[in-house]
Amino acid sequence: MADIPAGATLAVGGFGLCGIPSTLISALLDQGADRLSVVSNNCGVDDWGLGLLLSAGRIAKITSSYVGENKEFARQYLAGELEVELLPQGTLAESLRAGGLGIPAYYTPAGVGTPIAEGKETRVIDGREYLLEPAITADFALVRAAKGDRHGNLVFHASARNFNPVAAMAGRVTVAEVEELVEPGELDPDEVHLPGVFVQRVVLVPEDQRDKRIERRTVTEKKTEQTEQTEQTENGAA
């Protein structure tokens, strides 16, 4: 992390607070790099994830598809302190994937006829209009995986997979934090979600930093015997 300079472009994995590289983000906060351009699905919340870098004034530009959970984000944008580029979520994912595969640009129908299309080339193919979207690459990528080996082969857990693979592919130097580090050969090849060719550095997350915040908790009120009787009576009356 020490070699990430001011003004660097970062591709950061995660979706909301799920699968975010929180340890690497905290390390970057301590490292001090500023004027960062960040490409990520969202910008965390005010006190967690990328929101920590944002609150510290370290992010100059964010390319994202959803920004609705961060009040400081809104404040900085409205005050002209933060440059924002919004993309459809599928476009963001595909642009990162294209960047990782060396595809310079691709056509998509998403965004045609909207402000997203301003200044971009369009083309009609088989009677339908498409928008030419450029690929996205980054100087560095920060991602999180459930398991990895020393060659950089990564395994993600369930929905924490989200934007992590495509973010990792788009980085010229990709740093992965893993919850479990195994020796080469211990991972079943069929288990690997992202091959190590896309990963240059692997960091084991300390046990005391493996907390996983819940962005929004929704619970169902426990039914009592009285409420169940009331519901049965109402259903019977209906």
UniProtKB/TrEMBL annotation:
The keyword Transcription does not apply. The keyword DNA repair does not apply. Residues 210-226 have a biased composition (Basic and acidic residues). Residues 227-238 have a biased composition (Low complexity). GO terms for molecular function: transferase activity. Pfam families: CoA_trans. It comes from Catenulispora subtropica. Residues 210-238 are annotated as: Disordered. Coiled coil: none annotated. Keywords: Transferase. This is CoA transferase subunit A. InterPro entries: 3-oxoacid_CoA-transf_A, CoA_trans_fam_I, NagB/RpiA_transferase-like.
